[in-house]
């Protein structure tokens, strides 16, 4: 596309810089050959967000990471939320479009360091920062802000357990008390009134969505729950790590965190809440060579006299009318590729050949229902909107 054609595409959708020249009707236009007639020029022009009539001004802390980028992608189609603040750490000072060229057409503020962030123009934040860094940053935020924290920093109610699994004492225990765990389909009534929501981890989301209703209905035994889970590599974030290089990940798979992954206490907290007793699980995550997607294959013992069809019928009833949690037709196998890019969790229940046991399969996109999609679902609720607003993207295929 020529620079002139690019300009004519963008002119009507408001991507021109505010200081661009105006025609006799007062509309801004591109000057052929100027720096702002190419995508690179678009970045160099340092665009500020256009004035917006959208009701809620949103900050994205950690916008230069994978979950931050995914929030931006989802918000592009949100009718009520606009982004007025973005932060980064190493990439502070860079334009978002230069860090994520697939989103270059979005009219966004420049990313600044958290310490330089101005929250006066912000009603709510998505906190997409590494765990451990988040508690102190959230402690320093203005009181009136609604916060959805995607990190693990406020998920565990027991501070001793937090210290044991995360290797450091909690730095904001007073805030932990008010945090609401954001597994939307289970806790939505509490989430509506929350100021601070701890968005669940990706593995815990894929595990709790099928198991919580079954445990609440006493349909499965609380012992011998075995979870074999697999994640795409984006689950590990965008930071460079030798273990996540293409050559280390491709053409193979491996387990990690065996018997000591930090999602164990989070899963056990959710299942214990559902059963009002202490539940322990065996959980083994694996890294597989795909960029996004997650599957949990869960082996359970059914309660005496319960059949796998009872599990199926109960999940059907539990999630009837839910926008994002779908029980597939009997026998259909959930595939990660069928939820890619969407906020869906697809699940199904299968009889094991060993009598009394069943196999449950649950799939999500780790970056959407496992992170940014669920975070947006929660902020919708916190701001009084339908929880599916801006989240109706269908899965990408192939
Ligand atoms: N990826 C996933 O599938 C999921 C992730 N999560 C959680 O969400 C959070 C974000 O994950 P993800 O987006 O994958 O992570 P990334 O590593 O991709 O991004 C981290 C972001 O935080 C910024 N950052 C890093 N260190 C600091 C610091 N000390 N102070 C301020 N900003 C900092 C980075 O900035 P810069 O790039 O400029 O250095 C970047 O913007 C994590 O807590 C993660 O565990 C939860 C569910 C799923
Ligand atoms: C593939 C991979 O590395 N996945 C991450 C989990 C991603 C996630 O949900 O992490 P938080 O609990 O930090 O939010 C891990 O195993 O640590």
UniProtKB/TrEMBL annotation:
Keywords annotated in UniProt: Amino-acid biosynthesis, Arginine biosynthesis, NADP, Oxidoreductase
SUPFAM superfamilies registered for this protein in UniProt: Glyceraldehyde-3-phosphate dehydrogenase-like, C-terminal domain, NAD(P)-binding Rossmann-fold domains
Gene source species: Dendrobium catenatum
Enzymatic reactions: N-acetyl-L-glutamate 5-semialdehyde + phosphate + NADP(+) = N-acetyl-L-glutamyl 5-phosphate + NADPH + H(+)
Protein name, per record: Probable N-acetyl-gamma-glutamyl-phosphate reductase, chloroplastic
Pfam families tied to this protein: Semialdhyde_dh (PF01118), Semialdhyde_dhC_1 (PF22698)
Domain Semialdehyde dehydrogenase NAD-binding, chain residue ranges per copy: 57-194
Cross-referenced InterPro entries: AGPR, AGPR_AS, AGPR_dimerisation_dom, AGPR_type-1, NAD(P)-bd_dom_sf, Semialdehyde_DH_NAD-bd
Molecular functions per Gene Ontology: N-acetyl-gamma-glutamyl-phosphate reductase activity; NAD binding; NADP+ binding
Entry coiled-coil feature ranges: none
Record-listed E.C. numbers: 1.2.1.38
CDD domains to which the protein is assigned, alphabetical: AGPR_1_C (cd23934), AGPR_1_N (cd17895)
Family: Belongs to the NAGSA dehydrogenase family. Type 1 subfamily.
Pathway: Amino-acid biosynthesis; L-arginine biosynthesis; N(2)-acetyl-L-ornithine from L-glutamate: step 3/4
Keyword Disulfide bond (UniProt): no
Active site positions, chain numbering: 202
Gene Ontology biological process terms in this record: L-arginine biosynthetic process
